[in-house]
Specification:
Structural class: mainly alpha
Number of helices: 8
Strand content: under 5%
């Protein structure tokens, strides 16, 4: 008799759609926050998974080669003087070693901060929006220009 009641849906009549939606939203917030927390921590430190950090550090050189010309164009368009542009490059992109570890760590710190925002109900929307902006640069970063032309044609 209880199986028939379960199949008829009466067993779930006490769970409202709003409660279920709230649970699903919170569950997704936690899963996404953990995913971006791990992703960010792997970019910032090798204490989480040394092999992943090493791989990301080797890939950062390629990221920098893609983003450096874009940043240079932004500085030029914004009429930033060369001394300030050099300082911003040192803070945001690279320390002069052409390894672009600074860029990788800045992305990692941004992911960590946004993951924490996702866990707070008052700032979850901001965290999600900023993470979406970070992820929007992903295809530009991870699809090399030669492959990009092949995909378009």
């Amino acid at each position: 008799r209880s199986i028939a009641r379960l199949l008829s849906g009466r067993a779930f009549s006490y769970v409202s759609a709003a409660m279920l939606g709230s649970f699903v939203r919170k569950f997704l917030q936690i899963v996404l926050a953990l995913m971006f927390l791990m992703s960010g921590l792997n970019k910032v430190t090798d204490m989480v998974h040394a092999d992943t950090h090493k791989f990301l550090a080797s890939e950062a050189k390629h990221w920098g080669k893609i983003w450096k010309p874009l940043f240079d164009q932004v500085w030029k368009t914004a009429s930033v003087d060369s001394a300030t542009a050099d300082m911003l490059d040192l803070l945001l992109l690279d320390d002069g070693s052409s390894s672009y570890q600074i860029l990788m760590k800045n992305i990692g710190y941004s992911e960590i901060i946004c993951a924490l925002f996702l866990l707070l109900n008052t700032s979850a929307s901001f965290g999600a929006l900023f993470l979406a902006a970070i992820m929007a640069g992903g295809p530009f970063t991870h699809i090399p220009p030669k492959e990009d032309k092949a995909l378009i044609s």
